[in-house]
Design brief:
Elements (H helix, E strand, L loop, with lengths): L2 H4 L6 H7 L26 H5 L13 H14 L3 E5 L2 H12 L5 E5 L4 H13 L3 E5 L15 E7 L11 H10 L3 E5 L17 E5 L13 E5 L2 H14 L5 H33 L4 E5 L9 H7 L6 E6 L4 H9 L16 E5 L16 E5 L5 H17 L2
Parallel strand pairs: 2-3, 2-4, 4-5, 5-6
Antiparallel strand pairs: 1-7, 6-7, 8-9, 9-11, 10-11
Helix pairs in contact: 2-9, 4-9, 5-6, 5-8, 9-12, 11-12
Length: 395
């Protein structure tokens, strides 16, 4: 669906998910855009080649697949236009590099995605960019950390691992007073249940690998700009870095986009059941899931988000490593995996002591992140219950 067609109606988000990026009339009536594997674009004449307004010039720069997906994600996020990348991290690093330079000071959420932190600590610092991490719950207090050379405030909400919900409007208001660009990793929401650009954020980035893709079989990232001015800077950065995405991945992402709303709704329903059960377990010191009424982030989550997903973490009470290993290794429905957002449940141990500095991680128990998939939640609970039996036998 083109930008012109969408301008006629104020469709709901589910309708937009189904139709965004589709233009059957341009492809012989096909319901889905065919995969276009392209590098070379053939021009009919010298005049066409020399025309700067020619729609597609080279596959890496832009092609029918990237255009369709970028417009779809821009519509979903409420932005102007987007760039796509070969992974979520590639979208993040490209977006940051497009806007920062040597001598800048940047403020980065302390609960940021660990690979983003590594990029900041190694690549940005090597470039002469000063990186400072802030408490994700700082809110309007971020004003005290802003300097004359602060060029970027990078948020992630909810934060990785422990899912702190940031007061995005308060942080954005402080940034706008000083003309500072804001960016937010929106992977947790998939662009569906939280739209940071509507809250004043300039660039929304996310790992499409997660809930948009939804099937654990693609690697893709996207960065959506709020305005034409922001987009031009973002796009120029992508062109200079050679950032682009493969057409097969883009096609799969467009397919996943169509069903994301129903998948995420089911993920959230399942996760809430599991989280509420986990809250009552004596082996669990804390459940990190903002949709829980007792979660310290619940109020902000309720204010800004229209729903939840299937991602949560638990902090086990302190126990020997053998007890944790027996709990994890015997699980049948929670294989160990580093990703999330797919149809299946997963588990990943968290090493938060290695990636927190504004608020150093001092908890002694094991922190485990659980992706709650589309299985029957009763089966997931039964699997975890057997795991706790093993855990208790080895404490």
């Amino acid at each position: 669906m083109s930008r012109k067609k969408n301008a006629k109606h104020n469709h709901g988000k589910n309708t937009r998910l189904v139709h965004a990026g589709r233009d059957p009339d341009a492809f012989f009536g096909l319901a889905n855009l065919p995969v276009g594997r392209v590098s070379t674009i053939i021009y009919p004449s010298l005049e066409a080649y020399e025309n700067p307004n020619h729609k597609f010039r080279y596959g890496r720069v832009g092609n029918p697949m990237s255009e369709a997906f970028e417009l779809a994600m821009s519509e979903l996020e409420g932005g102007y236009n987007a760039i796509t990348a070969s992974s979520g991290l590639a979208a993040i690093t490209t977006a940051i590099l497009a806007f920062v330079k040597t001598g800048d000071h940047v403020l980065i959420c302390d609960a940021v995605y660990p690979p983003t932190r590594i990029f900041c600590d190694e690549t940005l610092k090597r470039m002469g960019v000063e990186v400072e991490y802030y408490d994700p719950l700082i809110g309007k207090g971020i004003e005290k950390l802003i300097r004359k050379n602060t060029s970027l405030i990078y948020m992630e909400s909810p934060g990785s691992g422990t899912f702190e919900v940031q007061d995005v409007p308060a942080i954005v208001a402080a940034a706008k007073k000083r003309g500072i660009l804001t960016m937010l990793d929106n992977s947790w929401s998939g662009g569906l249940i939280f739209r940071p650009i509507e809250h004043g954020v300039n660039v929304a980035v996310q790992s499409v690998t997660k809930y948009v893709g939804g099937h654990s079989d693609i690697s893709l990232g996207v960065a959506v700009a709020d305005t034409e001015k922001t987009y031009k800077i973002l796009k120029r950065g992508a062109l200079h870095l050679g950032t682009c995405a493969a057409p097969d991945e883009l096609w799969l992402a467009l397919r996943g986009l169509r069903t994301m709303a129903v998948r995420m709704k089911q993920n959230a329903q399942n996760a809430l059941k599991v989280a509420q059960w986990l809250e009552k377990r004596p082996e669990v010191a804390h459940v990190y899931y903002p949709a829980l009424k007792g979660d310290p982030n619940h109020k902000l989550w309720k204010r800004d988000f229209s729903g939840a997903n299937g991602l949560l973490s638990i902090l086990l009470k302190e126990a020997p490593k053998k007890a944790v290993s027996q709990f994890v290794n015997g699980l049948e429905l929670f294989p160990i995996g580093s990703s999330w957002g797919g149809y299946e449940s997963l588990l990943q141990p968290q090493s938060l002591e290695k990636c927190r500095s504004a608020n150093p991680w001092t908890e002694k128990g094991a922190c485990l992140r659980l992706q709650i998939g589309l299985e029957d939640p009763e089966d997931l609970i039964a699997d975890l219950e057997r795991g706790f039996e093993r855990f208790n036998k080895n404490r």
